[in-house]
Every structure is written in C-alpha cells, then in structure tokens.
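pinging the channel bc i need a second pair of eyes. not urgent but kinda urgent?? the chain im working w is below, pasted from the shared doc
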Amino acid sequence: MIVFDASVLIAHLDGSDRHHARAQSLLEANSSESWGASSITLAETLVYPARVGRLEEAEAALMRLDLHELPLGGGAQGRLAEMRAGVGLKMPDCCVLLAAQDNEAAVATFDADLLAAARKLAVEAVFGD
C-alpha cells in the first residue's frame, strides 16, 4: 500500500499545480498498488475545492482513484503527540506517517520535511523531492 500526502493529491486534482505532472507519473508508475490516505489528509486535500465550490467534483475524482480512507488507529492521540514531538512536523504530516506505519505502507509526498521524517522513522518513501 502507498499512503498519500495531501501534496500529491492536491497536485493530482489541480492541472495547474507545479507538481501535477509528477503526481500523474507517480500514480501511473504505482497503479498496481493499493492506495490510501488518512481522513485528515483527505480533508486537507479538499479544503481548496470546498472554498471554490468544487467539493463534489474533487470528491468524485478521489473516488475514481479507488483511494482507501484510512482511519487513525487506537491510541492515535498519544502516538501522534509523540511523533510530533519527536520529528517536529505539523499534525497533518504526522497523520500521514501514522497511517503509513499502521498499514505497513510507503509514503508518497512532495514535501521534503515529510520525506526526511519518513526516513528518520524508517518508513519507506516511494516518491519525493
């Protein structure tokens, strides 16, 4: 399984995003994998579409990816707090890492800080800057 960060999903949804072509390439190269994102990541991805009245369109595009929504597991609050304290990332990025750990998955991101934290935590990364 590959767990997506919002940076990849946002780039996929927005053809004018500077990472759009990279997101498309990543999706094509990993089409045989199952894909997931935490509930928090999905909400983060949908903020801009909601702001501009395109929420339903964006949700439909994500559904076409057959993307699994990954709920945070038991004891998530303490584990997230420890992770945030240990790696210094913001909470949404910690949700990506926790989802990857809980699902024994790799992380896909365009965020250099998230990529560095994934490496620090021995979480595989399939793509990054």
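so Residues 39-51 form the longest helix (13 residues). and The mean pLDDT is 94. — does that match what u expected or am i reading it wrong
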